[in-house]
Amino acid sequence: MAPSPCALCHTNRALILRPKDHSKLCKTCFISVFETEIHHTITMNALFKRGEKIAIGASGGKDSTVLASVLKTLNERYDYGLDLILLSIDEGIKGYRDDSLETVKRNAEQYGMDLTILGYDELYGWTMDQVVEQVGKKGNCTYCGVFRRQALDRGAARLGVKHVVTGHNADDVAETVLMNLLRGDLPRLSRTTSIITSTPSASSDPASNTNIKRSKPLKYAYEKEIVLYAHHKHLDYFSTECIYSPEAFRGSARALIKNLERVRPSAILDVVRSGEDMAKLVPGSDEGCGGACSSNVPIAEEEEGGCGSAAGRTVGGDMENMEKQLAQNDTAADNDLEIEITAKSLQKAKQHNRHDSAAVPLANGKKTKKGVTPRKTNKQVMGQCKICGYLSSQEVCKACVLLEGLNKGRPKNKIEVGYEVQDVQQRDQGADGVADVMQRTSIGGD
Amino acid sequence: MPGKYSVSAIDEPCRRCKAMSVIVVRSEPLCHDCFARYVHTKAIKRLERFRVNFTATPDQQPRILLPLSLGVSSTTLLHVLDLHLKTQKSKTNRTGFVISVLLIDDVVQDPASAERLEKVRHQYPDHDYSSLPLHDVFRLVPDDASIRSLLPLPVDQAKLSTQEQLVSLISSLPSATARADVLSTLRTRLTVEFAKQAECESILWGDSTTRLAEKTLSETAKGRGFSLPWQISDGASPMGINFHYPMRDVLKKELVSYINLAEPELASLVYEPSSGATQASTSSKNTTIDDLMKQYFESVEENFPSIVSNVVRTTGKLAAPASMSLGQCCSLCSMPISDGRFGIHGWGGDQQDGVEPSHAEGSNKLCYGCTRSIPQFGSTPTTT
C-alpha cells in the first residue's frame, strides 16, 4: 500500500488518522491543527483577558498536562499575555496522588510555571484515605467531588487568581449531555454545556473564594486526540485511574459515547452541539444567548465532580434509586394519591377558607405570604454557607454537611441525612451490584 | 422481571380484579383482560381530541393518518384504534374520527408487502388503505426542487425515474448511519405529504415510550438536539400537520407482550424482518446510530423502565423558541432553524479557521444533522 501524503501539507507522509474526522495527517500538521483549534476556541469565546492570571487545575493526568502544555505554547505564540500557574489538589490518596503529584512537580519545572499544591487535610482536616476509612469505598466519590470543587476555588482565592481552567474535554461534555438526558435533569443539562461557568460572588470581600471563573478550553477536543498530542509531544503525564473510582451511572453514558464515536467519528462533537442547542430550549435557562453573553455566565455546579480520569463520575446506584423513585411517583400518580401543591392552589384553598371561616382578609393575606413560597423548579437561589461562607443554594454547603457527618465520627447514611442533601444522598445509595448492572446495560460492542 | 409473562414469576393474582394474572407490568401482576385494558387506556387517554363530536355530521369527522410499518407498535395502534372506533360506534352510533392507513415500501414496491397490507385490510376492513413506494417522495412533495437538489447528479436528474433518483441519493451517502437517517427522514416527509393530500388533520404515529427515548438520544447524537421539541411532542408540527403519539406511555416490551397475549390474528399481521436490535451487525461499518440507541434502550427498559419514560417526559419539557420564524427550515428534515444556523460550520465546535462556509445558495439549506448525513451537499466534496 502506497503511503498517503498528509491531507494538509501534502508533502510529509501521513502517520496519524485523526480521530475527529478520520483525515490522514502527518505529525507536524496534527500538532499544529490541534493547537490551532484550541486557539480558535479561546479566541472565539473570548476566554481570557490580557494580563489575566490563570490557574490551571493540574492533576498530572493527560487532560490537564496537555492543557498546560498547549496554553503555554499558545500564550507564547499568540502573545495572550497570560500569567499561567499550576494549581493541584492533593486529595490524600496514597499510591495514586503521590505519583501524579510528582508528575505535576516535573511539569511545573518543564513549563516554568509556579505550582501550588493544596491538600484536603489542610482544607478540610481529612484526607481521602481517611474518608474512605470512615465511610467505606461506596460513595466516597461524592466526598471527593464536593471537596474538590471548593478546593480549586479556595486554592485560587488564596493565590489571588480569579480564573481557573480545567481539562474537561469533548468526550466529558458529550458524556454529561447524554447522562443528564438519561437522568432527566434539564437544568444541569443547560449548565454543563457552557464553556465558562462561574461562582458569582455572594460577598463583597474581594478575597472571597466565591467569585472564581471556570472555563474548559479543551471543550471541543477529543480525548483520543489529547492522548495523541501528549504522545507525539512526549508529554510527561501520569496515567492511572483513581484507585477508588467505581464504575457508575456515568459509565453507561460513557460506553454509549465510545460506541457512537466508533460508528460516526463526528458524533462526540455532534452531541456537544446538540447539548448547546438544547440548553437554549430549557425553560427558564440563562442560555438564551447560547452562552455567548459574558454578562450571563451560568452558575457553576456546587457539587460538580471531577476526578482526573473519572471526571465528575457519580457513584453507582443512582440509576437504580432513580428508577425506584420514579416508579413510586408513577404509582402515586396513577392512583391519584399525589396532588401537586402549588402556591396558586394553596391560595385558592385559603380564599376558600376565608369564605368559610369569614376570617379577616388582611390576616389571611399575611398568612399566605408567610406559609407559602412558590415552587422554584429551575432557578436556584444562591446564598452563602453559614459555616464556611462558600456559595451555596442551601443554608449549609454540601462540603460542610459532609464534613459534619465525618466529624461526628460515623458514616453518613441514607436514613440520617436531612432534606438538604438529598441530591448527594442519592448518589450515596445503592449496592455495588448496581455497577455491574450498569455495565451490562451499556452496549457491548468491544 | 417486569414485563415477562412466565408463569413461574407470578404467584399473586391480578391486582385489579383478582383473576389469574398472566403478566407483571411495572411491578403489578395483571390478568389477561386487565393488561389489555391497561394498554388500551394508555393509548385512548391520549386521544381526548378525537372524542365523538355530536355537533358534526358524519362526513365532518376528522380524518387521521396512521403510518403502518407492520411493526409491533403501529400494528397494535391500529388494533387499539379499531377497537376504540367500534366502541364509539356501539355506544353512540357515531365515531370520533376516520382512519387512513399508509404503508411505505422502502426502495422497491414489494408484492409481498401488498399481500401483507391486504391481510391487514381483511382484519380491519372499516378503514382506507394505501401503499406508496418511498421514491414517491420525489413525486409528491410539491416543492420537489428542495429534495431533488440533494441528488448527487443534478444534470441527469430529469432523465431519471423517481426510483433511480432515490437510489442515486442513497448510494451517494457516506455511511450506514447517514443512509438510515436520510431514509427515515424521507419516510416522514412522504407520510406528511400523503396525509396533507388525503386531507388528514393529524398523523398518529405508533412510537412507544422506548422508541421515543431512542429517538431522543439518537437525534441528539446526530446533532439534531435543536429539533427535539418538535420531534417527540404531541401537537402541531413544523410540517403543517398535527403529530400525535398515542403509544407514548407504553413501553416497547409491553407492546410485544400485548401482541403475544392477543388473538393470534393480530400477531400474524406483524412483520418485523430485522426485529431485535441485539441481532444488529457487530461491525461498526454497518451499525447505525439508530441501531445503537435501539440496543441501548432495549437493555435499559428491561431493568429501568421508569427511566425510559422519564427521558421522554423530560425531553417533552424542552420548549420551542418563541421567536422562531418558520420560514427558516431545513430542506431535508423540515425542522425550523434559528438564527440561520445551517450547515456544520460557524459555531464553537467548528474550529478550522478558514474553512469555507456552506456553498449552498438560495433557498436550499440543510440543518446541522442533515449536513452530517449529506456532507457533499452544499460544500466542497471531501476526500473521505
The strand count of chain A comes to 10
C-alpha geometry of chain A: globular
- CATH fold descriptor of the domain at 55-319 in chain B: Rossmann fold
Give the low-confidence spans of chain B: 1-8, 353-362, 379-384
- The CATH class of the domain at 55-319 in chain B is Alpha Beta
Q: What is the name of the CATH topology of the domain at 45-321 in chain A? A: Rossmann fold
As a whole number of angstroms, the C-alpha radius of gyration of chain B is 22 Å
User: How is the largest sheet of chain B built, in terms of strand order?
Assistant: 5-4-3-6-8-7
Tell me the series of helices and strands of chain B, N- to C-terminal: EEHEHEHEHHHHEHHEEHHHHH
The biggest sheet of chain B amounts to: 6 strands, mixed
Structural class of chain B: alpha/beta
- Give the topology string of chain A: H per helix, E per strand: EEHEHEHEHHHEHHEEHHHHHHEEHHH
Number of helices of chain B: 14
Uncertain segments of chain A: 286-296, 301-316, 353-379, 414-446
Report the biggest beta sheet of chain A as strand number plus sense, adding barrel if it closes: 6 strands, mixed
Oligomer: heterodimer
Largest interface: A-B, 59 and 54 residues
User: CATH homologous superfamily of the domain at 45-321 in chain A, by name?
Assistant: HUPs
| CATH structural architecture of the domain at 55-319 in chain B | 3-Layer(aba) Sandwich
Please provide a brief summary of the model.
The complex is a heterodimer of chains A (446) and B (384). Chain A is an alpha/beta fold and 446 residues long.
Description:
The complex is a heterodimer of chains A (446) and B (384). By secondary structure, chain A is of the alpha/beta class. Chain A has a domain at 45-321: Rossmann fold. Helices cover 47% and strands 9% of the residues of chain A. Chain A has 17 helices and 10 strands. A 6-stranded mixed sheet of chain A has the order 5-4-3-6-8-7, with helices on both faces. Chain A has a two-stranded antiparallel sheet with strand order 1-2. In chain A, strand 3, helix 2 (62-77) and strand 4 form a beta-alpha-beta unit. The radius of gyration of chain A is 24 Å and the shape is globular. By secondary structure, chain B is an alpha/beta fold. Chain B has a domain at 55-319: 3-Layer(aba) Sandwich (Rossmann fold), CATH 3.40.50.620. Chain B is built from 14 helices and 8 strands. Chain B has helices at residues 32-44, 72-92, 111-123, 137-140, 144-148, 162-171, 176-197, 209-221, 228-231, 252-261, 264-269, 289-303, 305-315, 368-373; strands spanning 21-25, 28-31, 63-68, 98-105, 128-133, 202-204, 235-236, 242-244. Chain B has a 6-stranded mixed sheet with strand order 5-4-3-6-8-7, sandwiched between helices. In chain B, strand 1 and strand 2 form a beta hairpin. In chain B, helix 1 crosses helix 2 and helix 1 (32-44) crosses helix 10 (252-261). Chain B starts with 20 loop residues before the first strand and ends in an 11-residue tail after the last helix. The chains are: A alpha/beta (446), B alpha/beta (384). At the A-B interface, helix 1, helix 7, helix 10, helix 11 and helix 12 of A face helix 8, helix 12, helix 13 and helix 14 of B.
